[in-house]
Amino acid sequence: MAEATEIRKLVYLVTGGCGFLGEHVVRMLLQREPRLSELRVFDLHLGPWLEELKTGPVRVTAIQGDVTQAHEVAAAVAGAHVVIHTAGLVDVFGRASPETIYEVNVQGTKNVIEACVQTGTRFLVYTSSMEVVGPNIKGHPFYRGNEDTPYEAVHKHPYPCSKAQAEQLVLEANGREVHGGLPLVTCALRPTGIYGEGHQIMRDFYHQGLRLGGRLFRAIPASVEHGRVYVGNVAWMHVLVARELQRQAALLGGQVYFCYDESPYKSYEDFNMEFLGPCGLRLVETRLLVPYWLLMLLAALNALLQWLLRPLLLYAPLLNPYTLAVANTTFTVSTDKARRHFGYEPLFSWEDSRSRTIRWVRAVEGSAP
Ligand SMILES: NC(=O)c1ccc[n+]([C@@H]2O[C@H](COP(=O)([O-])OP(=O)(O)OC[C@H]3O[C@@H](n4cnc5c(N)ncnc54)[C@H](O)[C@@H]3O)[C@@H](O)[C@H]2O)c1
Ligand SMILES: CC(C)CCC[C@@H](C)[C@H]1CC[C@H]2[C@@H]3[C@H](O)C=C4C[C@@H](O)CC[C@]4(C)[C@H]3CC[C@]12C
């Protein structure tokens, strides 16, 4: 017992800790970080599930707050040893304005960095995204690329632009002197498309399939490959890199790492069918019926409708020119940098990730869309 209290001395803060990824990071920290004494969960919207975590040996502190408010962030960061900054506005559908996306993703990240500097917090892990690299607006494929693969990263959409700016801020902050005189140590993780329990877009596709009588219609050629990664492995990589950042600051500080695991490379739709298929949906081949030019036209029409209707209502369908371009561009990652630098191995095999996700989709069945 005395040993346990001696070991438990670290305070972690997870921003966005009630989001899809954030919840998995929070739960993973509680399971796999034995040195944790307090876990602060900071989010705009707190989940009721946090209550059940408050009975364990780690003090779980729920903080309702906004990353765009510097004083709220500073108050939450003060006294934390490590910050895992996953909070972000993930919007490629035009639900939020570009200004709001920048405010949350860029200004929010600036606030987190400044809070670390002011309060003396030394270790910062940032959840970036593959989108800081690509796919670019030219639709160039990124095939089995790694962190050093040259790629023309040209963005126009506010989400990837904001993630790229925020990532750069985090990496540039590495080495800055924090309150107390020691250097800040930062790194960024770049997940590809995350899937698993709690994945809203998977839930949307599932309900859409149910509404269409158990069918989904193929829109993208099966030859376009996407890299996807299981949320449990992304969470595990955050826990591990946060730990190793403290042990190997010189090696990990200022570095970026793609998040990867053993999930197979497949088209976005074929990959989703790995879970939706066993839940009773089937993918109907419609390539001859829906040619790509027609999809582009529909996507452009959706964008026009979104703009026209904006004063009256929010029209934000899944299909728009940006999501079509991303869905239609091969982007796959093949790297071992995280393994070499901090001994990362996926915690969940593909079979395990798949069956956990299927179990979750089955539980979603019947729940309201
Ligand atoms: N989902 C993916 O496929 C994916 C892939 C790569 C990277 N990412 C990154 O991972 C992170 C988490 O994404 P997610 O998919 O879990 O999204 P999510 O929307 O489920 O979670 C984001 C969380 O941040 C919180 N948040 C938003 N604005 C906030 C604010 N102003 N102040 C405080 N909290 C705020 C939200 O309430 C939410 O709980 C994001 O930074 C995202 O860019 C996600
Ligand atoms: C043509 C349409 C019918 C299909 C639409 C699918 C589309 C909504 C999907 C395809 C690819 C998805 C993105 C990809 O998995 C990676 C990321 C990175 C992450 O940081 C945020 C989410 C995002 C952009 C996914 C969003 C949904 C996309 C575009």
From TrEMBL:
Enzyme Commission code: 1.1.1.181
Keyword field: Endoplasmic reticulum, Lipid metabolism, Membrane, NAD, Oxidoreductase, Steroidogenesis, Transmembrane, Transmembrane helix
Q: SUPFAM superfamilies per the record?
A: NAD(P)-binding Rossmann-fold domains (SSF51735)
Q: Could you say which protein family the record assigns here?
A: Belongs to the 3-beta-HSD family.
Q: What is the lineage of its organism?
A: Eukaryota, Metazoa, Chordata, Craniata, Vertebrata
Q: Which InterPro entries match?
A: 3Beta_OHSteriod_DH/Estase, NAD(P)-bd_dom_sf, NAD(P)_dehydrat-like
* Reaction(s) the record says it catalyses: 7alpha-hydroxycholesterol + NAD(+) = 7alpha-hydroxycholest-4-en-3-one + NADH + H(+); 7alpha,25-dihydroxycholesterol + NAD(+) = 7alpha,25-dihydroxy-4-cholesten-3-one + NADH + H(+); (24S)-7alpha-dihydroxycholesterol + NAD(+) = (24S)-7alpha,24-dihydroxycholest-4-en-3-one + NADH + H(+); (25R)-cholest-5-en-3beta,7alpha,26-triol + NAD(+) = (25R)-7alpha,26-dihydroxycholest-4-en-3-one + NADH + H(+)
Extract the Gene3D superfamilies matched here: NAD(P)-binding Rossmann-like Domain (3.40.50.720)
Its placement in the membrane is given as: Multi-pass membrane protein
- Matches recorded under Pfam families: 3Beta_HSD
Spans through the membrane = 289-309
Can you say what this protein is called?
Answer: 3 beta-hydroxysteroid dehydrogenase type 7
Indicate where this protein resides in the cell: Endoplasmic reticulum membrane
Q: Name one GO molecular function term.
A: cholest-5-ene-3-beta,7-alpha-diol 3-beta-dehydrogenase activity
Asked if Transferase is a keyword of the record, the answer is: no
Biological process annotations from GO: steroid biosynthetic process
Reported function:
The 3-beta-HSD enzymatic system plays a crucial role in the biosynthesis of all classes of hormonal steroids. HSD VII is active against four 7-alpha-hydroxylated sterols. Does not metabolize several different C(19/21) steroids as substrates. Involved in bile acid synthesis. Plays a key role in cell positioning and movement in lymphoid tissues by mediating degradation of 7-alpha,25-dihydroxycholesterol (7-alpha,25-OHC): 7-alpha,25-OHC acts as a ligand for the G protein-coupled receptor GPR183/EBI2, a chemotactic receptor for a number of lymphoid cells.
